[in-house]
Specification:
Chain lengths: ~240, ~140
């Protein structure tokens, strides 16, 4: 099949100071090709200056979150046939500063992520001096939120984040949830205090774009609601 | 100031261009109906206040409300209040009572039902108000 690939371009160092779009008509595209394959083809055969992030290309590293035909996907996971269109528009994710073409400055996103202490905090010495044991049920409590790959597809699909980049965003809350409900962790109170602040969970307006956009199918809005409950009830079981 | 404008541009661009699903559009409708109701309340408070210090202006305001474009606007206002209320109850239920209902399937269905119920509640009121509007033509 023939596909028209329309890509957002911006490169102030090369004089492209105003955002614009370039289009390429690609022949012999297989419906099972991924959008990343099309971008790689353009970069390899048409325009080597086209810039985008990719690493593992298999939906694990979370490097290639992009707005494809208006909504957030991982370019390495979405197939051409899934888009139901012969014109594919690729744009950078919204709400983070565009550095070049499809590359955005992810630093504010990771800064927010770091703010909720995304690591286990425990001063307790395990009973046997070696392992902190956990039941299957205790592990299941936060299983869903361990799947996050920090691609930012959720955060940059959130209307509250578009309005105010200081809002911690869904990905940060998901990663806080992962530790708040971990029976081995002892810093749930501190994390809940951070998320109870002005830029915390209460900025969530339940627009649900985050859950729809998550390539790992994490129940993000549910996780945010559970953190809200934990804040109001003080219960992290 | 530049940051504020950039943020406003991103927000509006996202609101309009982002291809979300039911959640995105119910969020937008919730915002629009909320702002519509707020705008009416603000105007209504001002015009009601005029009854104390300028009664003739108040009578004039009431006369304006009886003009067909305003009667049509009132029909829209009733929808705004009903949708905002019903959708608000849905969000409270899903978020505060049953967070496990925040699944893609349930949320999409709940958003569609909310719109359908709102229209169902609105139609009888709209019918009566539309008859009044026709009588004023």
């Amino acid at each position: 099949m023939e596909v028209t690939l329309r890509v957002f371009r911006y490169n102030p160092e090369a004089g492209r100071t105003k955002p614009s779009y370039d289009s390429w008509t690609l022949q012999d595209v297989d419906p099972t090709d991924r959008v990343l394959d099309l971008l790689e083809h353009v970069k390899g055969y048409h325009d080597g200056t086209l810039s985008f992030r990719r690493s593992c290309a298999h939906g694990v590293c979370g490097s290639d979150a992009m707005r494809i035909n208006g909504r957030n996907y991982l370019a390495c996971k979405v197939l051409v046939r899934d888009l139901n269109s012969t014109t594919i528009t690729v744009e950078p994710i919204l709400g983070l500063k565009v550095l070049k073409d499809l590359i955005v400055d992810m630093e504010p996103f990771f800064e927010s992520y770091r703010s909720v202490m995304p690591y286990m905090v425990s001063d307790e010495v395990p009973a046997d001096g070696k392992e902190r044991l956990q039941s299957i049920e205790q592990r299941e409590r936060f299983d869903d939120t361990t799947k996050c790959i920090l691609c930012a597809a959720c955060t940059t699909s959130c209307p509250s984040f578009w309005g105010d980049g200081k809002y911690v965003g869904p990905a940060t809350i998901v990663n806080a949830h992962r530790f708040i409900f971990d029976s081995r962790d002892q810093a749930a109170g501190e994390r809940l205090e951070i998320l109870n602040e002005q830029q915390g969970v209460w900025r969530c307006r339940t627009a649900f774009n985050c859950t729809e956009a998550c390539p790992r199918e994490i129940h993000i809005t549910q996780a945010i609601a559970e953190v809200k409950h934990a804040i109001t009830s003080g219960n992290v079981d | 100031m530049t940051t504020l404008i950039a943020s406003l541009r991103t927000t509006l661009s996202g609101y309009i261009k982002y291809r979300g699903r039911e959640g995105h559009y119910s969020f937008l409708l919730h915002r629009i109906t909320g702002l519509g109701t707020l705008l009416f309340l603000a105007i209504h408070i001002v015009d009601t206040a005029t009854v104390y210090w300028m009664p003739e202006l108040y009578d004039h305001a009431i006369a304006i409300y009886r003009l067909p474009p305003f009667l049509l606007g009132e029909i829209g206002l009733v929808f705004c209040v009903i949708y905002h209320g019903v959708n608000g109850l849905r969000i409270i239920y899903q978020d505060m009572v049953k967070p496990s209902s925040w699944t893609i399937h349930t949320q999409r269905r709940a958003a569609r039902w909310t719109l359908a119920l709102s229209i169902l509640f609105w139609l009888p009121a709209a019918f009566v108000m539309f008859r009044t509007l026709l009588a004023h033509l």
